[in-house]
Specification:
CATH topology of the largest domain: Rossmann fold
GO biological process, one term: menaquinone biosynthetic process
Largest sheet: 6 strands, parallel
Keywords: Magnesium, Manganese, Metal-binding, Thiamine pyrophosphate, Transferase
Pfam families: TPP_enzyme_C, TPP_enzyme_M_2, TPP_enzyme_N
Radius of gyration: 25 Å
Number of helices: 21
Number of strands: 18
GO molecular function: 2-succinyl-5-enolpyruvyl-6-hydroxy-3-cyclohexene-1-carboxylic-acid synthase activity; metal ion binding; thiamine pyrophosphate binding
CATH class of the largest domain: Alpha Beta
CATH architecture of the largest domain: 3-Layer(aba) Sandwich
InterPro entries: DHS-like_NAD/FAD-binding_dom, MenaQ_synth_MenD, MenD_middle, THDP-binding, Thiamin_PyroP_enz_TPP-bd_dom, TPP_enzyme_TPP-bd
Length: 576
Amino acid sequence: MAPDTGSINRTFCTTLVDEWVRCGLTHAVISPGSRSTPMALALAEDGRLEVQVHHDERSASFMALGIARATGRPAVVLTTSGTAAVQLHAAVVEADLDRVPMLVLTADRPPELQGIGAPQTINQVALFGTSVRAFIDAGPPELGAADSWRALARRALAVTTVAANGPVQLNLPFREPLVGELLELPPLLPHEHSGPVPGIFEPLEGSDTGSELSDLADVMSGRRGLIVAGAGIDVPEDVLAFAGAVGWPVLADQRSGCRRDHPAVIAHGDAILRVSSALLEPEVILRLGAPLASKVLSQWLGSCGADQVLVDPDAIWRDPEQSAGCRVAEEPSSLCRFLMDEQLVGADAAWLQCWRQADDAAELAIAKLLAAQLTPTEPGIARAVMHTVPDGAHVVVSSSMPIRDVEWFAARRDSVTVHANRGANGIDGVVSTAVGVAASGIPTALLIGDVAFLHDTNGLLGLAARQLDLCLVVIDNDGGGIFSFLPQRTSLDSERFEQLFGTPHGVDITTLANAHGLAVLEANDDQAAAAAITASFAAGGSHVVLVRTTRDSNTELHERLHAVTTEAIEESLRGE
């Protein structure tokens, strides 16, 4: 007797999962649904995968994004058909723009149910448009095509990491019945082996650009250079080794992995670039990784007049200032090793010394002013998070003010990995992203504002039972704090500004967190926040550290910080 449809569905999905695991897949996130049953069972029953279940599809997709960020490997997210699949779009866009590998599995109705008003049936063909590296429609499983199932699985997973990492949509139409007996799996592919498939999870190899790179090295040699290091640095040690060899300062974003205790690393580039001085003017700038959040840096890059070289392994032109004169399609580490081998003549020692003196002066000024504050401060909390988390921890930083406070005010710190959804710079899905990072098995802290926190409260669903080490540091200023720094704050009357931009919500975050079974530690100053973070990691599990601030006082403090750092930097440049 021929196998029934349910058994074919089950065997098809089990084959795909088996092949994915053989290729190195380790994590999957499932949102409950009916049409996705065959794949959900296959993922859950495999036994080799870490499987998370989340009620909310949007949160589930950002959770998978967080897992992929933390592990560097694609993660699976699975939904049922219809609007459930639509909920994944924001995370898919973020994964596309920030090059995060994800395998997006969308269950679907079979072709005969399309276009006739069947429930939970929408057009899922190329649902995410150009935001995916590939759209693959598997079609309803047929036993006659079983010899192609493993190749399909391998192709779908491989495309997430070919050229530029990113999301792939694999659409899975299933006919009923959805459940059946497991049949014998198709044989392994020829030359099969255990472990990752060559090329899927390996870093891209730097191409041989020969004389062009030699010419570039000649242009750089003996000049005052500056390295701007954003997210996406593959081997930070190689970048820092090159910087140290040639005496070039490194403006290091927290996400770059370069903001370490190293003589060339500059932590407070935003503050330094607010000071105009011929002593700080580079002749050439090497731009590695993604753009930083600093508007001051962006404007400076657009007007400084230095020769700028944009380095990107995928040759993507990430240059919003349109100031780069050329781009190099190389991994940052590959280029830096090449330049080291070329033995460039370094800059005069005074060049790097000047930058470090300015940076050290800014650090002292920031620390002194914040230490004098008697109430919690948002810059102080950002510094506390980066200073207090244990070695080896990961930190997820939300967009808007948290990412800027970390970039502007946090000091150098070794042994911490920082993540942020800066591909599209949105505030959606940040809680779920942090849950995903923690689900990789790494102690994790989240720094987030109240609006972004409320925007993704479904990310808290089931968190207390997930047994994750996650400290959620929530800065509550009852509204959209970043808008207080924009011209709208002074150009509109207070009532209109609050209605459209301040947007006070009045939500009791302690009660909300308690409703999800999470303990809340409320901090009354920056030191208490640091102690609460330490206690959270010591106890293990998930906790909320709540810090209440006011938007007006936060704006005023930022102005004072910019003023004192400017004064300190100018004094350092005068040799005082």
